[in-house]
Write a structure and sequence with these properties.
Elements (H helix, E strand, L loop, with lengths): L1 H16 L21 E5 L5 E6 L4 E4 L4 E6 L4 E9 L2 H20 L4 E9 L4 E9 L6 E6 L4 E9 L5 H21 L1 E2 L3
Antiparallel strand pairs: 1-2, 2-10, 3-4, 4-5, 5-9, 6-7, 7-8, 8-9
Length: 190
């Protein structure tokens, strides 16, 4: 009987002493170091506008005569900017419809949209900025126009799929650069 009790005692001791204490997983937070913005002017003779952009955080590439790519490589975001010459109200309406179609593809998957309108009658700059909440591929869409001959559309695009909460600070950083662009753009009259 002693031969059974001793192994049973050790087996019971081993069984109850091997419990692991479960600890809750700690939350990890994304830490991003944002560079201090430094705004340089983009001013070329072959374009009908000029503006300020954050040259400290982005690389600016001109793709053709009417398209720009601002690469925020540290934030894994890019800002695409397209310029169009328009002729008359029908052309303006067509560009506005095209912009709305692109915007609708992103807002269908969103958790909400914040609209910010921009009007500067003295400088003839009118526009709208849409901040699209949720896990979407393009969290910011916007356009600027003078309603006569210029139309600019832009979008912020993610380079990888991520959670909206994780990239929100980066989106706000780029949004501030876009607002500087809104305030600084000038139409060059030729």
């Amino acid at each position: 009987m002693g031969k059974i009790i001793i192994p049973l005692f050790f087996f019971t001791l081993m069984f109850f002493s091997c419990n692991e204490t479960n600890l809750p997983k700690q939350n990890g937070f994304l830490r991003i170091e944002f560079k201090e913005p430094y705004y340089s002017i983009y001013e070329e003779t072959d374009t009908s506008f000029n503006f300020y952009y954050n040259s400290n955080s982005t690389d600016l590439d001109q793709i053709g005569n009417n398209q720009f790519l601002f690469d925020y490589s540290d934030l894994n975001l890019s800002l695409n900017l397209s310029f169009y010459n328009i002729e008359g109200s029908q052309d303006l309406e067509k560009k506005s419809r095209d912009f709305s179609l692109i915007l609708d593809t992103h807002t269908k998957k969103s958790n909400g949209v914040i609209l910010r309108e921009y009007d500067n009658n003295n400088r003839r700059i009118f526009g709208k900025l849409y901040e699209i909440k949720g896990d979407v591929a393009s969290p910011i869409q916007f356009y600027l126009t003078d309603s006569i001959s210029n139309f600019i559309s832009g979008s912020v695009n993610l380079k990888f799929k991520s959670n909206y909460d994780s990239i929100y600070p980066s989106i706000q950083y780029v949004k501030n650069d876009i607002l500087v662009l809104f305030e600084s753009i000038n139409w060059n009259t030729k």
